[in-house]
Amino acid sequence: MQDLIATALASFAILSTGSAHGPEITLTAPGGIRTALQRLIPLFEAAGGPKVAASFMSGAAAKAKIVAGEMVDVPVVQPPYENVIASGNVIRESETPLATVSVVAAVAAGRPAPDIATAEGLRRLLLEARSIACPSAARGAACGVSFEATLDKLNIAKEVAPKMTVAPTGWEAIKMLARGEVELGITFMSEMDPDPRVQLLGPLPRAVSMPTGFVAFLHARSKDQKEAAALIRFLASAEAATIFRECGMTPGK
User: Do 2-100+212-251 and 103-203 fold alike per CATH?
Assistant: First the structure.
């Protein structure tokens, strides 16, 4: 893997002899891609790329930061992002899809696993569940926004609302499930840490829940555009795709 990444970086024409001698570049991204990026960034740096200072936040906050004019060399945002492009703070031509991820449902281990492959099966599960944990749509969590749209498509938002418990993150929604605080956990597949107390039911059906995308841009005011562009190309490479898959994501669009 290391040799492959080194080869990839060489093809990106990174000229620094190591991250200690090159500029530090900044990256901001939504939490749903955090696990993959926390694995990829050290590989990029170790193979000769510059040091990357990464920060993670909700999907809405990541977009708002760029629209407001804050300079981040490599902003990663989720669709829709017309306002990010319209702000003039990113280079439109640098738009690079990295990966997508599905919203999934999980229940306590040992419980009968209902079939949620269809919209009707999911609707039945949500109506029967007495308590559900999910990240907050109101706070801009992309998983929560997606799940809220799913409830609207199923026409059960009012019925499910009293059962909802807001989790700070998708990881915490699953921890709440593992501790027995709720019957059903909703999160991104990329935020599903292995836990013997939890069983994954699978992704929500595409008829009511489309995967969420993560797209990288080059900031228009970046002073280290060559290095930042190299990072984006690495994150879109075949080597990075392997890591995305291992983190429960689908590389590309």
Answer: yes
Return phi, psi of residue 17, to 5°. -85, 0
- By the 8 A CB rule, do 106 and 201 touch? yes
Contact 251/244 with Cβ under 8 angstroms? Answer: yes
Domain boundaries, the chain: 2-100+212-251, 103-203
Taking residue 177's Cβ as centre, other Cβ atoms within 10 Å add up to 28
Q: 212-216 and 74-77: which strand pairing?
A: antiparallel
CB–CB of 250/244 below 8 Å? Answer: yes
Model pLDDT for residues 125-137, shown as the tens digit of each residue: 999 999 999 999 8
pTM of the model: 0.88
Question: What fold, for 2-100+212-251?
Answer: D-Maltodextrin-Binding Protein; domain 2 (3.40.190)
Q: What is the pLDDT of residue 20?
A: 45
Instruction: From 181, 166, 109, select the one nearest 136 (Cα to Cα).
Output: 166
